[in-house]
């Protein structure tokens, strides 16, 4: 009898061990847009979840935390570095707080259209940049997606020329490169975290800000911002970032699933954001904003002030070679269209 009990106990122990061994790997996934399917980040996250769980037969359990539920961008990036968070989709300003070279993408009036940006980011420059980030941070940059073409908004008056920026208190992302941009145009920059921006605008702490249409709509910034100028000064980025410690713990099949599914997510993310960008004038007019579309000559006036000043800052902050490589990659991409 004792022998039978011992055999049964051993069998149960082995079965329990086998079940533990087959337990799904949890992939916590955070982003900073509302958890609604009309939001590009969330629609992309849902697609990634379904794709990965199907491709791995459930060996990876994707758990989505929208609207910054796991903390701000800096907190998320630290979690990725130290392996307490698996995946985050973070905006450019937040990334540069941990990896400053990301500021290079904030060079104003760089990309003439979405297609040029995609060629640069999906090409050799984007790949080399991701490799450098991985080596320095332990964070794996899986894909680049749109955060929207950035435009100026404010509550005081229309902005048609750089002179109209003079004296405006403008919110910027907590990144020195955006401070340099505002100062070059004569505005007074104030670094405010994204989560605090709607209240800062509503309370008049700042007069205006700069963001893409998707974010203006997602946070209902139009409620306190009367005027918008569609100057498109920065092609703003989101990046799909994964803890390399988590990635290295995946099987080859699971790694392939993550890499394939993040491309699907990126495509949805880009397509939705780009569509909103292209419909900016109508979208913002419909919610009551006064929209100004500057001429090419007017945009050139902004570029002449902003680009040299920001380029000088970037060359000092992230290196002249990196800035030159980006400009060369952009020129080649634009020339190939």
Work out the helicity level: 40-55%
Count up the domains.
1
Based on CA inertia axes, which overall geometry fits? globular
* Percent of residues in β-strands: 15-25%
> How far from one another are the termini?
81 Å
Q: What fold name goes in the CATH topology slot?
A: D-Maltodextrin-Binding Protein, domain 2
Organism: Pseudorhizobium tarimense
Signal peptide: 1-24
Family: Belongs to the bacterial solute-binding protein 7 family.
Pfam families: DctP
Short description:
With 337 residues, the chain is of the alpha/beta class. It contains 14 helices and nine strands. Helix content is 51%, strand content 19%.
Describe it for me?
Residues 1-24 form the signal peptide. InterPro entries: DctP_fam (IPR018389), TRAP_DctP (IPR004682), TRAP_DctP_sf (IPR038404). This is Tripartite ATP-independent transporter DctP family solute receptor. Pfam families: DctP. With 337 residues, this protein is an alpha/beta fold. The protein has one domain (23-335): Bacterial extracellular solute-binding protein, family 7 (D-Maltodextrin-Binding Protein, domain 2, 3-Layer(aba) Sandwich), CATH 3.40.190.170. Helix content is 51%, strand content 19%. It contains 14 helices and nine strands. The chain has helices spanning 2-21, 40-55, 73-82, 92-96, 114-122, 124-137, 176-184, 197-202, 213-218, 244-248, 252-278, 280-286, 296-318, 320-335, and strands at 25-30, 60-65, 87-91, 139-154, 169-172, 188-191, 208-211, 227-243, 290-292. Helix 2 packs antiparallel against helix 11 (252-278), helix 5 packs across helix 14 (320-335) and helix 13 (296-318) packs antiparallel against helix 14. The radius of gyration is 23 Å and the shape is globular.
